[in-house]
Design brief:
This protein is mainly α.
């Protein structure tokens, strides 16, 4: 958000509706990758072959953010050393956390693939159901005592691996519904969000956990958005070459846009006086949103023309 002037309904609603974007990506990854076609002896090589494609961009942009946020220029040697030594284990810029989860999923994908090749629909449904129970913990914690850490009974059924399995399930067995039903599902989830906010605000319910990536709302919204977006993607497949070319070009640049958009938005646009002077918060947010995408696309496209763009955005314009 471009400023501190928050409008609760607009800000919360926008955040909630876009929250499943992370789950969608992990679900699509599981849809396309699982089961991994590799031998047990080559499983590490398979994971490393994918990780190394974005490892340099991740490292370079981590250093960029440490530079622009002042960490590397702070003069505090202990803080600088701690940040640099932490890079292999945790993101030093909030938006980069996503890549660390993806690395972990790449490592575990070859491990679960033999099981997926031998399991059946009912067994997979049981594991997804256990994952779903773990996603109910944020709702249940105001009422009962639950351990959601390594000592918890469903700890090994929780986390982002469930999205990987969900993607595999959708590819092989499908979870389909009419777009209007998916839209009704999204509205119902929004109603749940509002009801919990009203009823449990005084009971210690943590909304950032209850309505975030590892809550039951997120995979439900992933399924609903999936069924809304799939007809659109099918239309794109039937579209003309011009539309396909635009989509392919944007797709090639999209990883770079992900890496660079916070740089463009936070350290560029939101510092501009003309942006800060927009009185209407909703208009201000929309302007920043559009300009951030366009600015990041322009920046990443320019980088793609340079000799070392593969190391910066994992893509080079041919």
């Amino acid at each position: 958000m471009p400023g501190d002037r928050l409008i609760p309904i607009f800000t919360s609603g926008l955040t909630y509706l876009t929250m499943p974007c992370i789950g969608l990506f992990f679900t699509l990854s599981g849809y396309l990758l699982l089961p991994v076609k590799t031998t047990p002896s080559d499983s590490f090589s398979w994971a490393w072959g994918r990780i190394k494609k974005f490892l340099w961009p991740l490292l370079i942009w981590t250093l960029v953010y440490l530079l622009v946020n002042g960490t590397l220029l702070s003069g505090d040697s202990a803080k600088i050393v701690k940040s640099l030594c932490s890079i292999p284990f945790s993101p030093q810029e909030g938006v980069l956390w996503f890549m660390y989860v993806l690395i972990g999923l790449y490592f575990v994908a070859p491990v679960i693939s033999p099981w997926l090749q031998q399991t059946n629909k009912k067994t997979l449904q049981c594991y997804l159901a256990l994952w779903g129970v773990s996603l109910l913990f944020p709702y249940l914690m105001p009422f009962i005592n639950i351990r959601d850490n390594a000592y918890g009974v469903l700890y090994y059924m929780s986390g982002f691996l469930g999205y990987f399995l969900l993607g595999y399930y959708i590819r092989h067995y499908g979870i389909t519904m009419k777009p209007w039903k998916a839209l009704c599902g999204i509205v119902a989830c929004m109603g749940t969000y509002g009801a919990y906010k009203i009823l449990l605000e005084s009971r210690g319910f943590i909304f950032e956990e209850g309505f975030w990536y590892l809550s039951i709302d997120s995979p439900l919204l992933v399924v609903f958005w999936w069924n809304l977006l799939k007809p659109l993607s099918e239309r794109v497949v039937r579209a003309g070459d011009g539309v396909k070319k635009i989509i392919v070009n944007v797709s090639n640049l999209s990883f770079g846009v992900y890496l660079a958009h916070i740089f463009v938005m936070h350290y560029g646009l939101c510092e501009l006086e003309i942006i800060q002077n927009i009185d209407n918060y909703i208009v201000q947010t929309i302007v920043v949103f559009v300009l951030s995408i366009l600015g990041a696309l322009f920046l990443v496209y320019a980088i793609s023309l340079t000799p070392f763009s593969n190391y910066i955005i994992a893509y080079k314009k041919k």
